[in-house]
Amino acid sequence: MIQKHQSLSTLSNRYHFIDIIERVASSHPYFSLMLVDVMRFSDVSSAFDHRAGDEILLQIVNRIHVIFGEGLILGRVSGDIFGLVFEGRQSQLIMQSKYQRLVEHFKTPLYTNETAFIADFNVGIASRTNKKVTATKLISLAEAALKQAKNNQHQNCSFVNDNQYSVTGRGLALKADLTRAMKNDELELYFQPKVNLLTTQIIGAECLLRWNHPLDGVLFPGSLIEAAESYNMMNELGHWTISNALSRVEQLNKAGINISVSINLSPSQLYDVSLPKLLSDLLQRHKIQAKTIELELTEDVALSNSLMVKRQLDDIRAMGLNVSMDDFGKGYSNLSFIRDLDLSAIKIDKTFVMELEQNPVNKAIVEATKLICDAKKCEVVAEGIETVQQLTILKKLGIRSGQGFLFSPAVKFDSFLRLCETGNFEQLLADKIRTTAG
Fold first, then answer.
1. Using CA atoms, how far apart are residues 106 and 119, in angstroms rounded to an integer?
2. Which helix (H) or strand (E) covers residue 364, if one does?
3. Nearest Cα to Cα of residue 103 among 84, 122, 75, 117
4. What are 313-355's pLDDT values in tens digits?
5. Are 348 and 382 a contacting pair, CB within 8 Å?
6. What's the rounded Cα separation, in Å, for the pair 52 and 36?
7. Chain mean position to CA 431
8. In 45-144, at which residue ranges do the beta strands (DSSP E only) sit?
């Protein structure tokens, strides 16, 4: 007889569930991970209270155990998302039949507070067919499959396996480019100053990757990053970026320049289990205070519901490093996630700053972001400042930090050192104001 859960607290939480998946991966060459997202669950919480919601989720958990048997490995990934692990070889046909069993079973309604609730699900499934594929990679694939299922209007289940991505001629060329670029020191970090808008003093910098192509000159490395993501080389590229950034910070400190430096992290890097140790080792090697380093995440990554991302960010913050959200407003921010996310700064996307003079809605978005940051006690940074007029409006709105071409584009490290020796953009700004007035 299957033992029922009496409380959701007896389920593995996201951290313990990751550990379980890693143990399964080390002892079983083949297995599948199914992520089950309860659709319209917020309707229950909105109509009643969290206790009613927990009661529904508990009924779902116990029914899933009935469907798939006592030996099922089940964990709670987040509020209304559960993870199911199936050991052994599982073809797409087998996993889709499991999904069908799930759907058919839940055509019978659940009840809470004498009200019926029909549970529907979005399901993402990933199967490991290659023993070299890590647990974290499979989790990433399952989450990508779940996202695809949510975006598909006609099919609520999406399946991927670990060898689904085909190799193309263009992809192989990009992979060769990346390998050569790293081997021949063609990559370089540029630095864009972050400025106190009231004093024009340099208070920080953002590291940006550039590619010194042997034929085409200095390039933005978008295609290289695309190749790195496609061929599982992003961790290698990310390690290079972090290592070189912290080496430059050490040089700044030795020159008596103590400012914060931000480094962009890709989604793939947050699935690299060695990331926290890499950061810890580099901080010690270069004798850098953790609080001077800020890791920038894009809005979609920062607000991700990923169990792996959350654990990594918790570990990173515990080390004393700062975490900021880049390009705020560019995507579709979930304000409840922002409320619960521990951030040192939120960076307003440049598209709202660049049209600040013409578009009153942009001004309102900047004001709203400032209110959110004040409530969270985190910094708000304006990106893409290009004109004196934009600067004037931002200062009136109470924005204290920013970056953009009005002050300086991203420059080579030696040029950035010279900017830091000057310390501020007071004279540059005075000249621009005079030119504008003239």
1. 6
2. helix 360-376
3. 122
4. 889 999 999 999 887 766 555 566 677 778 999 999 888 898 8
5. yes
6. 20
7. 40
8. 73-78, 81-87, 110-112, 115-117, 121-128
